[in-house]
Fold this protein.
Amino acid sequence: MSEHLWRIGPRAEAFGDEEVDCHRRLRGPYTGVGTLLRRLVPDAHGRWPDLVARHALEILSAAPELSGLIGAGPQTLTSLAIPSERTRIYPANRTRRLAHGIFEFLRSYAELAGHDPLTLAFTNLDEADHTDQEFAAIALRRARSGPLRFVITTRTRNVVDELSASLHQYARQTTAPPRPDDACTDEEALRAFIGADCVSDDPRQLTAYATADPAVVARLHDERAAELTGGDSSLGLGALLHHLEHGSDPAQAGSTAMLDAANHCFDMGFYHALLDIVPRGRAITDPFEEQERHWLLTTKMTTALASLDRSLESLPYYDELRERYTIPMVHLFCSYAMAMLYTRHHPPEHKDHHQAKVLLNNAVAIASLLPDLEQRTFQTVFQNNGKALVEMHLGNLPGSLDLVNEGVRRLDAELDPDKHQLHRSVLLNNRAKVLVALGRVEEALADLDAVIEVDPNYPDYYFDRADVWRKLGEPARALADYATATTLTAPFLELHYNRADLLAELGDLEGAVTDLSYVVELEPDQLDARINLISLLIEAGALDTARAHVDEGLRVHPQDARLLHASGLLAVENDDLDLAAREFDHALRVDAGLVAARASRAALAHSRGDQDAAVEDLTAAIELDSANPDLFYNRGFVLQAAGRYREAIDDYTRALVLPGADEPELLQRRGMCEAELVDHR
């Protein structure tokens, strides 16, 4: 395995088979990754088109210019919706899925091309957008072995926490000597700085730019903007955007470009980039002369804050908009968006579903007064769909269903069937969720069938339908939907987690282990997945692999009681009963309510002949989980072994009336105890 390298220092150089500059001022989100893909994908497409097709979604999200070469990829109603009909936004973790998919493409490319290794150099990563830093953090961790090696250069140590942790753990640090300064005049330094899109940290160029005549600077920015106009679309998220912002017409050309860039980042789920772009756009957009542009920019940022779990920071911006404008659509949007904060995005202690309902009633009232029929119908239905969510959170499932049903009816009755196809599908999907909550699973299946028919490339629908198939006792169909979903999305850990659960139920331990292993490879902090994986590995006798996962889990979660319990189970399997006892004790010190650890410690005490300790632990476990027939069986078994037959009979009898009880075994055990009592009499 080739080690990764982290070179730190001003103007540090990198070296590798492929070197890319990640400075976000060049192309915004995925500046470095997108540049790398634009270089490698043409070769991959010519030699292994199936590989490219498998990762088209991730490739085109980072390098949209490649659509002319590889096609548009699988399209959904979300990606095809015109801006005025776009009602679905991507979750913030979508960029993590994209990063994993891009990493897997690069790893496969390197393997197929015979690289050993393929060295990828990312420069200026501390100046990169969150997307590039997130990718590098994930890639450094996942490329601990294999055909990829990374050389990272940063001017400083100022990177996002996840990247910092990966660099410190997986890369060797070196201090890079700075490149020598170029001999040039102030004018040459200024032109070089702007001509290279203002990303240089050359002190001579920075000084020349800072001290130059502002009129000359603006003219040079205009000239560079003209050179870039008509080029790759991603330039509009970086260099072109920067030059228009600092050229001779920032209030119009710059402001318009800012809104265009914000719209793209919003549609793609690049929320960290929005927090960079929107403040710059607001600064050059007159809130009174360009009212619509200003409030549209602002609401893009507030949505980004909510998506990034910073919803409380968005409230002052909504107040600003409501105070400044009397535009109905501003107040409509603010009411809806604030309602979503109170019912969905705020931390639990700040949620207020009743306040959300108040805000949505205001939104519905405004929508009902809009003069245009199509707008009036759509907006009323849209706001009531939000209200349906609030009713769900308030526990009013019938009321929620009524609102969604009315929305479906109105769109069908009042709008052209070709209008708002995306929101029609959203309504059907939402109705399916309410129906599942109401236990009307077959009706939910019909809605999901309908929505998949009109939007067959949206993976979440297959994920939801698989859950419905499971409830209907159709595991084969659920597995088929999971399989389809994997072909339509970047790596999606929840999908593999749920499929593993189903496979384990069906007795396919190997398949379940494969899926859960993939989940913890994607995200090592997925504790539930790791616990389940360890349990399956122990059951399969793969003790060394289970131990490795316990150790890795404890590195990430050093005081997790379930992992400590699993460590004790492994000690039992290895006949190290003293270590097992210490681990069970440790687990219960951390979490005295961990029933599994109580049961395991009881089993260990029983095996050592200490029946009183075993009964004590099992009694405590039963107090915590009195609906578990296995606990009553186990205590009955221990009591039986201790000759306390009447108490054992009581436990076996109590177990028999609980769901999931093993009746034949319990009846046999109870009969044995009754026979012992007869013998004693």
